[in-house]
């Protein structure tokens, strides 16, 4: 059931009516029924998997909680007769038993994800190895249908079990509540990856609903529809045309595809999250923000702190920190410190290893293919290189800014005031911010080509065609016959009109992009919805009617603009 379909709108309206009419204590069960009805549209196989995950999560978390309670009761009852060493030994044994339960739960849940998502990828690589050694026999593919949003709810489940093991949260002993946390329908499609501790009060102990939450949620959903239908699905037409024919659409077309995909991905993913947060808010449930103006980031590391935030924090809390503090990594660190390596290298290598594992896993999470793995490792490489070059950046900015000041700052007082600024203050100036943000977008757009084309070889060939077209005067070999100009003059001679979009469509995309930029600028001073909500009713109503009309008039509908599934559904 697509978020942007009439079926979903009808489902949401009917669900809200039913939810609001139900007694407060019954509402979690109504929401669970709605969630399973929503997910059932993806197929019976998907329901079986999510129910199985919920059963595993319930059994594992309740078992660990019972063991924790038993430990506390035993210690409280015998603390006077037990020595400190005996208590310490008892706690260590209890921790080992609980860890065994946790490991069983992780094997079952992550094993399920691995089998469903990565079996055919593994078989394909084994067959490639068999080809290399000259073996004629091949393994057959299982062709397992990947359930919608499985990576999101599996990661949410894993986080829940680990938090219970760490005694960071008190688990529910109600199996229906466990099932609701895992299957809450707005975040099934594309996240965010919620933590049990953040959402349990709103989800399992609902409070009387306020009319403000309904209005603010509806506003957020409408804004998400505008992003998805007006911008993302319109840009998708041109992106498909470019990536679908990489042999012809090279050079300038690749650059256009990179820019359009950056716009499409942002509008698609943030639009979907807007609908998620808005729908949850209409039920009185708060879901964490997943984006904070990511295209304003000054470097790739900052971008990943602003983009898909819940995924980044999940990998940090459940992979990076546990691995970096593990016994194995402590041994590696100790060995390196005793070696003859420079001190900084000995300190940084464990960070490199841990970060490489995280980015490998991040790439694999996005897709079971080598292009995503390479994409993850290239992100890792860019971030690590950037961090290692920070001392050089600081030295460059210190000297460069001083030279500019000496040339331009004839006023001695002005020059002295500028030189007193810290490096961070100098780098926070608007021109530098604009340059750094543009540079970050360009780097990320280059990396995202691996996602666009879905094939490592084709991606590098397409990327190389950008430079080939420049040095060959815009018509690389093979394109002269087709008469297609691949040089940068293609941006001005009407060639871009062959991608399925008209001048009218490009104008709408430009206006949409500027609107997104303006809204992002306004968001720096607080929530746009809350500021709109503070306006007089007539003004607020007029703006909402205008946005609704824009979605109806300019939304990408019909055979030529097939409403696409949200990009992150496939993850």
Structural commentary:
With 571 residues, the chain is an all-alpha fold. Among the domains are: 6-208, no CATH class; 222-251 and 259-287 and 491-570, no CATH class. 71% of the residues lie in helices and 0% in strands. It has helices at 6-21, 27-40, 44-78, 84-132, 150-165, 175-183, 196-204, 211-244, 252-282, 300-306, 309-324, 327-338, 343-366, 370-388, 390-408, 412-419, 423-427, 430-453, 456-471, 503-523, 528-533, 537-554. Helix 1 packs antiparallel against helix 2, helix 8 packs across helix 20 and helix 12 (327-338) runs antiparallel to helix 13. The protein is globular. The chain starts with 5 loop residues before the first helix and ends in a 17-residue tail after the last helix.
How much of the residues is beta strand, in percent? under 5%
Global structural class: mainly alpha
* Overall number of strands: 0
Overall helicity: over 70%
Identify the overall geometry: globular
What distance separates the N and C termini? Answer: 16 Å
